[in-house]
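Morning, I've got a small favour to ask if you have a moment. It would help a lot if you went through both lines with me. Thanks so much in advance, here it is.

***
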Amino acid sequence: MSEASLVQIHDLHFAHGQRVIFDGVDIDIRRGGITAIMGPSGTGKTTLLRLIGG
């Protein structure tokens, strides 16, 4: 993780049962920046935040 990065995710794969939620996602959230996670209902926004938060 670089000094400017708060969160780095590389090649994230996550499934719930047979349903693939994330397949090869890369994210770099910079320290001090503003990041929005947007999308329609049911696309995994809350799941992503829960995975980041542990």
User: Anything to note?
Assistant: The chain has one helix and two strands. Helices lie at 45-53. The chain has a mean pLDDT of 93.
